[in-house]
Design a protein that fits this description.
Helix content is 16%, strand content 39%. The chain has 178 residues and is α+β, with helices and mostly antiparallel strands. It is elongated.
Length: 178
């Protein structure tokens, strides 16, 4: 005569059978660390600005010209009731701005007391890079741009890491009067 199992023993037996028949957990995949920024072009160079340094990207707005300012200061635009100084970033660095107005965009930067729009030739939206693709080496480029570049990422092309905050803190950028 078989002895009867207690309810606790039955539960243990069910638990053991479930563990034997259960499928294993999926293997955890290695997650690659990435860095993200806003990709843009000035001339034939590709740049990426850190995400936290660009507030928004706009189509080139209508702006009012200002007298007595340097040629790279395009004017001031009314953006949602707020006056946005519009600067030609290519012009600031002595480069030619693309004549294709449809592709131009404005990177809005707000840092400390500076609120400005930087016109660039083209914006490529969010760009993500593997941390392993970063090099602290500043690529060869125009000397005026170099103080604002902090390394580069290598992917299908070289993307220089450009800091709009460093530009907004630079005394020459803040000196807009002729």
């Amino acid at each position: 005569m078989s002895e009867q199992q207690s309810p606790f023993q039955l539960l243990l037996e069910v638990d053991n059978r479930c563990r034997l028949l259960a499928a294993g957990l999926p293997s955890q995949q290695q997650i690659a660390q990435t860095w993200g920024g806003i990709g843009f072009r000035m001339g034939d160079r590709y740049f990426v600005a850190p995400m936290g340094e660009v507030g928004e990207v706009l189509h080139e707005p209508r702006y009012t010209l200002l007298p007595g300012v340097k040629p790279w200061v395009k004017g001031v635009a009314n953006v949602r009731g707020r006056l946005l100084p519009v600067m030609d970033l290519c012009g600031y660095f002595g480069l030619e701005l693309s004549p294709l107005r449809k592709q131009r965009r404005v990177l809005v930067v707000e840092h400390n007391e500076v609120f400005a729009g930087l016109i660039v030739d083209e914006v490529y939206g969010m760009q993500h890079f593997s941390i392993d693709a970063f090099s602290e080496q500043v690529p060869a480029m125009e000397s005026g741009v170099m103080p604002f570049v902090h390394g580069h990422f290598e992917r299908e092309r070289e993307w220089a890491v450009f800091s709009p905050h460093a530009l907004a803190a630079h005394h020459e950028f803040l000196d807009v009067a002729c």
